[in-house]
Amino acid sequence: MNFLYNILMSLMSLAIRAASPFVEKARLWTRGRRQIFKRMRREIDPQADIAWFHAASLGEFEQGRPVIEAFRQKYPQYKILLTFFSPSGYEYRKNYPGADYIFYLPVDRARNARRFVEIAHPKIAVFIKYEFWGNYLKYLHKSGTRIFSISAIFRRQSGFFSRWYGRRYCRLLTYFEHIFVQNEVSRRRLWAVGVKNVTVAGDTRFDRVYDIATQAKVIPLLESFASGDRPVFIAGSTWPPDEELIARLMNESPETKFVIAPHEVREERIDHIEKLVAPSGRKVLRYTHLAPDADISGADVLIIDTIGVLSSAYRYGRYGYIGGGFGVGIHNTLEAATFGLPLSFGPHYKKFQEATDLISMGGATSVINYAELRAWYLLLRDDEVEYRMASDRCRRYVENGRGATALILSQM
């Protein structure tokens, strides 16, 4: 199995390198790993106590961020090493001030893992959510590193429970000192295959989004946009199928202002959104085209065509829509729920426990077409009692979900 695994890792690396002349993410992935070990030797203090945190991408980083920052506060003597697998994590957080060293994770081949562990010499390694790299776990274990998995979730279709190779795959889990899972179902599944070093800690994202809400930065442009009598509908992390629905709602709801923050901010994507709204004659502005102190209170639609604004932008909304539900799955619902926005999203949400929970408690709804989106919006617009109940349920859900970070830190 180890031989086949290393072959697969090599083939994956070759495929990404072959795509790099044509695909930007592949190019960043390849370029970011050039001379990686030389750079690590130059930057990492060989005498320092190192705590290594690894996140696949930006979403996993945000999930682990409360733990990173709490660890820094509790153990200031440690240097923090942060790695990413994906460019969408590294490129956006390569200057994150909460870490001392930030790198791409070299491909999980045996030689790479051995060199990485020798150079980084971490005393503690923390893998966030889904990351289970066999060679890294093996060499970390050999070196005596304490290894943790946090905010993990184990679904029935996971390779750990395969009838063909699940038993061998589960050996990886024996390298962990402790695994902190999000829910009781995950704990029961691990116990069923003999993995007992498990604690149900919950989802650290609750701690993160609650902190965002309590420390949300003031955004002058959005302050100006949201001023006046009209409420604001915020559609976050949208994709084209989401935008088709939202554009219709915009065009038929002059009583409400709209903010759209597309998941991708390429120029052609922004142009497409502008064209969807153009027939209505509503005044559309782009965030990056405005002076920070511009008066945009009379605008109807604001497109956030940059990264890093959305999580705080939700504070200015009354209604929320989360994109991705007509594709592989919805994006972060908790960032909006923590501000008490009743939420709507497309039908592909069932892999996300928080979305299922919010629907069951009446804080969110899933829509499959424009008619359903419009009906949900009109209900909340016209019934203040219904609106307040949905809003309070979302806010309470986040408040009640906090505490995972403190529980994890208590056992490190």
- What average pLDDT do the residues reach? 92
Distance between the termini: 32 Å
**What's the total count of β strands?**
14
Number of helices: 19
| Structural class based on helices, strands and sheet pairing | alpha/beta
Share of residues in helices? 40-55%
Tell me the fraction of residues in β-strands, as a range. Answer: 15-25%
How are strands sequenced across the largest beta sheet?
A: 3-2-1-4-5-6-7
**Quick one: CATH class of the largest domain?**
Alpha Beta
Annotated CATH architecture of the largest domain = 3-Layer(aba) Sandwich
Task: Please characterize this protein's 3D structure.
45% of the residues lie in helices and 16% in strands. It is of the alpha/beta class and 412 residues long. It folds into two domains: 2-211 and 403-410, 3-Deoxy-D-manno-octulosonic-acid transferase, N-terminal domain (Rossmann fold); 213-400, Glycogen Phosphorylase B (Rossmann fold, 3-Layer(aba) Sandwich).
